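Holo model, iron/sulfur cluster. Inputs:
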Amino acid sequence: MIEVKPKETGLRCPSGRPEFEGSKVFGVVTGVEQTVVNYLPRPVEQAELGIDLPAGIDPAQVFRFTCACAESKCQHFDGAECTLGDRIVRLLPTVTEALPKCSIRGHCRWFRERGRAICLRCPGIVSHDDQPADTVIAAAMPPDRSLQS
Ligand code: SF4
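Output:
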């Protein structure tokens, strides 16, 4: 269990890791030709889903986790905001025209900082993607290693 100590914003990360303290599943990755995250009515413990993943599968390949935003302990946080959210909006295409129903919107850092624009891209995001497109690699690159200007 990795402990995160966020500031007092109460904002949550929408692309957390399962091993982070307090992480819960709020979306399930589906789709064959195109990734689509189906958002659950509420965040739940992974165990509540009763899904046994095959050995070697990282839960972040199959689920989207939310946990407290780690802020300065996260490589994507620049001291003021989440740069990952910024890159996603700038580099990735929208995957839906309608605002997805999402149970964490009231506390989501990405939504707080990027609004509707990131929600229209969010269902296409897998936290652990084994075969990412070049644009996804660029979007995931933390600021100090980013090739973006
Ligand atoms: S970006 Fe939007 S759709 Fe994605 S987790 Fe945040 S509120 Fe939900």
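Strands lie at 12-16, 24-30, 36-44, 63-68. The chain has one domain: 12-145.
Archived with the compound record.
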